[in-house]
Fold each of these.
Amino acid sequence: MYAEVIVDVSAYPIDRPFDYLVPEVYQAIIESGSRVKVPFGNRQVLGYITALKNETDVPTDKQKPIGELLDIEPVLTQEMLAMTKWLKRQTLCYEIDALQVMLPSAMRAKYEKMLRIVDVNAELPESVQALFQHKDSVELKADESKELLSIIKKLVKAKILVLETSVKQKTAVKKVRMVNIEPDVDRLQMIYESISNQAKKQKDVVKWMMDNVGTCIASTDLLKLLNTSNVVLNAVIEKGAATFEMEEVYRDPYAERTIDVSTKHSLTDEQQLALNEIIHSYNKHEARTFLLHGITGSGKTEVYLQAIERSLSDDKEAIVLVPEISLTPQMTNRFKERFGSLVAVLHSGLSVGEKYDEWRKIKRGEVKVVVGARSAIFAPFQNIGLIILDEEHEGTYKQDDSPRYHARDVAIWRSEFHNCPVILGSATPSLESYARAKKGNYTLLTLENRARGQELPQVSVIDMREQLKNGNRSMFSLELAEAIHSRLEKEEQMVLFLNRRGHSSFVLCRDCGTVVECPNCDISLTYHRHQERLKCHYCGEESRVPNICPECNSEHIRFFGTGTQKVEEEIARLFPTARVLRMDVDTTRKKGSHEHILNSFGEMKADILLGTQMIAKGLDFPNITLVGVLSADTTLHLADFRAAEKTFQLLTQVSGRAGRHDKKGEVIVQTYSPEHYAIQFAQHHDFIAFYHQEMINRKQFTYPPFSYVVLIQFTHEDVLMTAEYSHKAAKWLNENLSDTVEIIGPTASSISRVQNRYRYQCLIKYKKEPMLPDILQQLIRIYRTDWMKKGILMSIDLNPSSIM
């Protein structure tokens, strides 16, 4: 028997299955989808079995056996193996990348170089003896001195030492030590009597055991309960009062949280109609995609919950995706309140071990609902009844690195595999999704009213140019400042939104005009007041704040632009009584910080929640009556055809945080472009009018949804090399693609240098080009066999979420 194995090496010549001989000991139990350790070259690597067969073309003398079978139960289902092939074609990635994206990072390989003594009689130099410290083998670390590595190399050549690659899983199963108490009370009585009266603590432990015969308890819990030590417990166990046993446990990210049980709410007529459509499709086992277009506060989540309830009643499973990690705690609470322990959570805020344990619960069928971010779409369910993408328009559903998949496309593929519905929910659907719904490719469901019957908040647009003319140089317009004062007096809460973190956008010399830039990227450094540092938000470069201009030595160096830190300071100056919570990347680095901030706000420990786009959607607090958008222009004038769409979506979503319950809401939007149609339509919550206007613009320039786009990007440390190879690629594509395809560029990217690598890109626009996948594969082949050796990096993104 032979196994086709994809090995854990991302390289062009190795992007194919390799045949390995299955040892007789594994033949009865081995299955496709399992992980194995296999010899590859002169080392052991992790591999994934994609198929089993009885014949191979590999000559007998070159056949290698599988080293070790890591999984008795396959970690990849047949569905996932089929999805891997689809994902490889769809995203033009390596097959190993497609396989690994489906598994938690804990299950990926950790490679260690182990040094072992072969000739035990050989005399080793002192430095090598010190490394081994009387052990047979040790891990060889890369940071050892050059002298020691040189000595080791000679000893390996002399066959005194041998260097082996050890393959380990990154995270192990968590086990705790359990105490199994003797079930025979008479035996415990005898042990109790045999203990000296001087060993009072031992007697206390046995006395407690006599009252709890036959039970099993974690040793840490027992020590805490009886306020005793390991020494005492070990002594009692040696006498036979109990036994130790290692038991597997899950790391539970929600162990310390109390979640109340909730019942389902009655639906409005609109909600009921939408739910009936979904359940009708579910009952017919149709792979149908629904676009649930509901205004903010229209009760889309309740529709999701009741649709899932229907799925669970047939013992089927459901996947729910949310775009931001900050939304996960609130969403998770809603689902756990309804479905209790049947809910698992998967997102990047969990530790590697927690993600691994949640994944194992899903794989073992111990849960029926998964709530998570993008990667949760690969949850290893085998009987899916429903898939939901909340806020389906969000760009975070698209992965930026290989494999560059979109969670929506994977969801639709899985729905076709399981013959189940997909719900794409949003108050501001992406233009592509809404156009597909209007065309009939998706089924459009509409919720035009808020679930509790409240009106949408009134939106005022403030022209900041007029404020400046009238002498107001503050970041707060007079209207917004008055509204904040009013809410503070009424003890109501506010959300202030600015999509720019840090203190100041850039540092500028007022004498010579020099802007302090990142040495690695063509972008200005952002000033962070809290740490008194300048930071690059692209490569992470940090430097101290200069006192004098680095070019002209002038002392007239000033901070310009506004970030969330600066707003926080200004609030403290203008509204000294206001309690502020800031939520951006800088304040949410620690595990659990998203949840802590939102819980504090929900418990009325703050008056103002200030933040970036992570606060713009999904949040539902009853006391928010004011939303202030400090600058609506941050995304409006980007060099991206989706700039107006993203601006409209952000403004509409953040506006929807106000007045969701009994109290009336108000929204104040500050902008320097009040006449722009994205802002005008957002002011009136008019998605349909925005859609029609934006479609006219897209049609004029044949951008999606009137065409498909492919973004090809080139990077190199030498700008001339980058330009040369991007032009070579564009020329080759022009020669090989049909005349109906438009190639824009190549041109320098809007941020032309990141991490000391220059960036050029070209954009392919096409309506129908059946040969495009094959032609792009040929281009990749040319790149991998020739251009790659010269240090060029090329990436191809089919249907990119951004062309920046």
Amino acid sequence: MPILARFSLGRRRIMVILIAVFALSPCIIVQAQDSAPRLARFSESDAGITLDGRLDEDIWQRVPAIDGMRVIQPDTLAASTLRTDTHIFYTERGVYVGVMNHQDPDTLVARMTSRDTRLERDGFVINIDPSGEGLYGYMMRVNLGGSKTDATILPERQINVQWDGSWDAETSPVDGGWVAEFFIPWTMMALPNVPGETRRIGIYTERQVGHLNETWSFPPLPSTVNEFISAFHKMEIDAIEPSAQLTWYPYLSATHDGIRDESELRTGLEVFWRPTTNTQFSATLNPDFGNVESDDIDVNLTAFETFFPEKRAFFLEGQDVFNTSPRNQSARGPGGPTTLLNTRRIGSAALFDVPSGVNTIATDVSQPTDLLGAAKFTGQNGNWRYGTLLASEDDSEIRGVALDGTRVKVQAEGRDFGVGRLLYEDTTGGGRRSIGWMGTSVSHSNVDAVVNGVDMHYFSADARWVFDGQAVASDVNGVSGQGAFADIIFQPIRGRQHRVAAGYHDDTLDLNTLGFLTRNDLMHLDYNYTRNESNIEGLRSRSTSIFNFNQWNSNGDFVRQGIFAARNYTFLNNHSLMASARYYHRRVDDRLGRGSGDYYVPGRWQFVFGWDTDPSQKLVYNFNLDANSEDLGERNTTTRAGVTYRPVDNFSLLAQVAYTDREGLLVYRGNGRYTSYEATQWSPELTLNYFINARQQIRFGMQWTGLKAFENKFLQVNPNRIEELREVAKPNATSDNFSISRMTFQARYRWEIAPLSDLFVVYTRGGNLPGNTFDDYTGLLQEAWTEPVVDTLVIKLRYRLGS
């Protein structure tokens, strides 16, 4: 494995990172394995499949059916009560799956949703592990009605639903149930080189039965066990050598900005080339990375950054090799994900240096940066996997106004990004062991950042122990930092799990030039116990969780410490109840004051209660109550309620609202001074979906958050020693009262012309009122609508061409 290296990227030159992996000897020694059943093969012409959601071709009668499903949700592992006849075969082009889901037609639940939406309904899943060794896989799900979900899978159950593949599927209700019919092309998957004439793949099937609120699978692999991808049903196929894949995604987009009364026409190209079954090169020229889906509104008054997931297709394709830890895509780390690569940094707001006395528009400064281009190369050779990612931003320019009224051009230089990844994985003898390296680089006239990491993973052959760990080092503008973290999971029996998480991040570690880390100067040692139970009298299932967390800084001061206990009940009528009690020990806040001094936060309690009705019904209600305390001990209560109405399969209306009443909202005002506020906040959300058919959707969505805060107390930190904030007299006559009114509205039409080929027509309107605007909440909402800061209409066509 290469030693930690420093990347250096030249400005506006061709950037190249070479990852050289010497060819492994063809005489690789592997443990002998028992023979596996063979998957039926036919020629494409002999199969003659028309993908229409009906199993009326003769070929389906010649392929034996697979069933054997058991109930995994709840995890009773009881035999399924209905037959599921799954027929699978393959051709030189790909894998075909035909499924007859036997069921009373009166109980069918077919609901159309956007892609990758989780919902209780009738659906079928086929998972494929092309490595045959549990190293990586692909999940494809189609629901009755045609709505799809897909994802990539990493050991053992790291599922990334942001990925979209070029597979296709159709469904139809029939006498005695419903049918699902899939086509999954080989060119969509990375196929490792294997010696000999046969290769082994893993297959997993899953069926969701909406009216029963149950999930069945074969093989039976509930979430209450550690095993997943490594335990897929193994099947042998002939050594497939698909033709080299070359796929083109030209796009054309037209944008009209109603605020500036400007229009822009853009065109560009994305290219995906798979020269061999186990390598892929992708590049984008003049990319248009404008999102056709808005981020959720976030009102963040803390000292910590909010993490937003990636939504751009180019960066999501082939990204899994750059996943170095389960903490990359979840909140398992303190405060959120911990990752060396957060691709939302690429093309984010430019690094403007606005001269003193020049006024600019906030939305201009924060707008995304255009990219000149990006390229990615991923591959596999034996036990090794590798990848590189390169991207270069264009220079940015906005307009400012000087104090004398003259217009000023404010410019920002673009950044160059580079990422390298190398991973070794071994599954001989059962289980999994792997070690990897990843390095990132950001080059800019004001930023010279290099981050390196080594990650290690272990999964025991008996599936009881899981270990994931990573050591990281950063060098940003000559300042070095280090850190390490690890997660250990022990599962003695099904349904019971112990997890220990530990980490160390010194006070100079900086991952946020290209990655994401909520905070440095942190050590933590956390313990989590979960227990899941099924077949309980009067209940469908019950889960219990106990979580103890201990986080402290380099001074030895606890910055977060406490214990949580939670119970979740699912009743026989599919209603569910959640109750949680949480106690936070006294801690030190060393972040909100931005270095002006630390102070003690007294201990406090929090109680959370939630109720949800049967999600399979046409009318669904939910209610949540969060009774918390502010940092100074005052009451902080949030009440949430929502209703979802689905009278027919192709229409849904979601309405929910949250109301927060705070008696001690603490905001830092500078120079060690804080103001405590009495504040109220309304956050309604309304979403309407109408599907012309499974491939054409009209969606209206609106989110708004309105907050009004009135000064209550004035406090000062003691900069010389740690103590609780002390109340002081109002320091000046200026009012600290403020308001927030942020609104996002989006109307979107999407037509999926073909797999991964879409036409979007999107209108987006957003408002963000000045903080000194006060009105009643109805007035704040009206003003946020009538005084927008974003008003755009986008028409975008992206079409897939090639193999």
